[in-house]
Amino acid sequence: MDSKVAEFDLIERIRRRIATRSDVLLGIGDDAALLQLPAGMQLVVAMDTLNSGVHFPPETAPADIGWKALAVNLSDLAAMGALPAWCTLSLSLPDANSDFVDGFLDGFLALAEQHDIALVGGDTARGPLSICVTVHGFIEPGTALRRDGACVGDDLWVSGSLGDAAAALSQWRAGGAIDPGLRARLDRPTPRVSLGRALRGIATSCIDISDGLLADLGHVCKASDVGVRVDVDALPASQALRACFDAEAIRRLQATGGDDYELCFSAPVELRSAVIESASTHAPVTRIGRIVSRNGVSALDASGVAWQPGQAGFRHFE
Amino acid sequence: MDSKVAEFDLIERIRRRIATRSDVLLGIGDDAALLQLPAGMQLVVAMDTLNSGVHFPPETAPADIGWKALAVNLSDLAAMGALPAWCTLSLSLPDANSDFVDGFLDGFLALAEQHDIALVGGDTARGPLSICVTVHGFIEPGTALRRDGACVGDDLWVSGSLGDAAAALSQWRAGGAIDPGLRARLDRPTPRVSLGRALRGIATSCIDISDGLLADLGHVCKASDVGVRVDVDALPASQALRACFDAEAIRRLQATGGDDYELCFSAPVELRSAVIESASTHAPVTRIGRIVSRNGVSALDASGVAWQPGQAGFRHFE
User: Fold this and answer.
1) Binding site: which residues of A?
2) Does A112 lie in the same domain as A179?
3) Domain end call among A104, A139, A174
4) What is the ipTM for the molecules in this complex?
5) Region B80-87: what's the mean pLDDT?
6) What's the gap in Å between the CA of B148 and the closest CA on chain A?
7) Which domain holds residue A242?
8) Is residue B148 one of the residues assigned to a domain?
9) Mean pLDDT throughout B236-249?
10) Same domain, A286 and A203
11) What is the mean pLDDT of residues A18-42?
12) Which of A46, B8, B251, B262 has CB atoms 3.0–4.6 Å from B160's, for a disulfide?
């Protein structure tokens, strides 16, 4: 089949399945989408790409790839406290494989529906499997959760649990069985959108954990011109993680493993109860450290001894 | 070098070179960009990807790749009559090659500067060379140039000249010398942004020629529920094209060659002088046919005989 015909067919296949919203004046099917931002709102835009063999193992199910491609982007909106609205999708495929596209859309659109986000445009192209998504959300002026607002003395918090995605990847690399609970965290991360919304007016800074807790906190330190002290023994771990790894491996996976897509945020000490109350209906939150005056990111164990990860940073899958 | 460190270094390299705008409240450096849409404007969003070996020959100069990646997206805004404002860039590279990135930015930012468009976010990732860009523009409500407004009896117009990019590709495929003028049209297309703006209130439909004139007109026919009759002997050709190809090859390249990024639009017959006057300072325009009641896209030669391209559709580079 002529590749352009195949592309039009794929786009039509996508168009037939998508939901829309009243603020989408013109969606898929023209040169560009036409969108109506609500009065008084500012626009929040993030863009992230997943490449096969780099950001996910090549044998990942198409539906999981679709879910994750949107999830990692929604996570960026969550980290800003934004309300998701629209997305565009660029899908590069080695061939016009409609089965792959159908499966991909199963995951992508399931998550889109959860967050009432409309797919409004993009393209399909021939090329190595790669998925690029741009998400658009709204935010009330002056309420965005940024990286540059952390204050000395603030508590440091994290949502959910850490290390599961990296643990699944570690099991995948080892070539043995992968715990299904861990694998689900790798393949179908939960973007903490409603938690991000709830933290407006409470958190002084926020970031999502994509590259690993310590690495991502480095960005907060730099942007806010502060340091951060992390209590590695306070990091929340799932049952599955505790069941599969020893204590030191758990610390390493939690502190340096990426792809968790939990929110890590700072908030004033006097707002501790407000944090717990606001978060309660959205996600568990754990206090894991404190903002200090300098010296970047330091990690201490429960006895106050400095802790160093055996392996610095997270390299995604590669 | 650790690949995440390399990624941060590349992002910093990009951040240092970009211009900003007063409506960019927060650009590169947080989880998402924070943008202020002007009051009363609607948002126009387009996204297009270029993959190496599919959308450009692998040996294309990095600066030309950068230019083209933004140009094909700006062309979509042009086809809507929108005013460009912001873009995001996702750059997948086989390795963290800073020389490539510097060259790429030379072309990308030169075009961005011409159109006062700010790069506000995106990501870099490891993977086969692929460039995904999302562009954002503004449009006054009710003035967007869409594909669905063509009316029976309207004139059909095209800007600039057609076939040069496909001609360069044809010479490239043949393995011989490539005419520099033709090659420039392939590598550095001119998005017709100011022409698109000038056509608001005049054109009844508009599309940019990316896949080939006849193929792209098929979308207009479908969206507007009309037919179109194209006079293939009226199609504008450059000097370079006339110098390098015979009459039948020229027709074929003009009618079916893609990557021209000219605007093709319909307008009422009584607005002929308005079209010429509005276009005059932006780009030459040529009347190439008429909107008719049905039967999709038909092409006729000067003597009124139906013309069929030897090769249907345009396959980009592949």
Assistant:
1) 31, 48, 55, 76, 122-123, 147, 208, 210-211, 259, 314
2) no
3) A139
4) 0.94
5) 98
6) 9
7) 154-300
8) no
9) 95
10) yes
11) 95
12) B262
